[in-house]
Design goal:
The protein is an alpha/beta fold. The chain contains five helices and seven strands. The protein has one domain: NAD(P)-binding Rossmann-like Domain (Rossmann fold, 3-Layer(aba) Sandwich), CATH 3.40.50.720. Helix 3 runs parallel beside helix 4.
Length: 139
């Protein structure tokens, strides 16, 4: 069986430099939660964040959507803050919508789903923090 490998640091840097709109799946409204802190930092870096979490109207000043199907504008990257068992369904949606890239945050490890997303043409980063990588690779 093929083993998942993250893109090279240069490829991750290129991804972070080209994306503009990041859907943050599992974005918490609680300021103490990592998803909230990271999404706020992404806004500070100049990205447009799109909160994706059922039962919320708004987070960090942005309209929230119940799922990726509801997001009306293009999505450049899906950043996931959900437990690994939820990743399969998220990958299914990303493939269905033809989205270009998927980022699974620290601790979000689902190798089979990540490989399936890669085979479908998505650039996939797994078990890494987008905030930490942005700071390290872009500054």
């Amino acid at each position: 069986m093929q083993k998942f490998e993250n893109p090279s640091p240069d490829d991750i840097r290129a991804l972070l430099q080209r994306v503009q709109r990041i859907a943050v799946v599992g974005l918490s409204p609680q300021p103490t939660r990592p998803s909230h802190t990271v999404a706020a930092a992404l806004q500070g870096f100049g990205y447009k964040i799109i909160p994706v979490r059922p039962a919320l109207d708004q987070v960090l000043g942005e309209r929230a959507y119940a799922d990726l199907h509801e997001v009306p504008a293009p999505i450049d990257l899906v950043d996931v803050f959900r437990a690994p068992q939820h990743v399969d369904a998220i990958v299914d949606t990303c493939i269905e919508l033809g989205l270009p890239a998927l980022w699974l945050q620290d601790g979000v490890v689902n190798e089979a789903a990540a490989l399936r997303a890669q085979r479908a043409g998505l650039l996939v980063v797994m078990n890494r923090c987008i905030y930490r990588d942005h700071r390290a690779l872009i500054g």
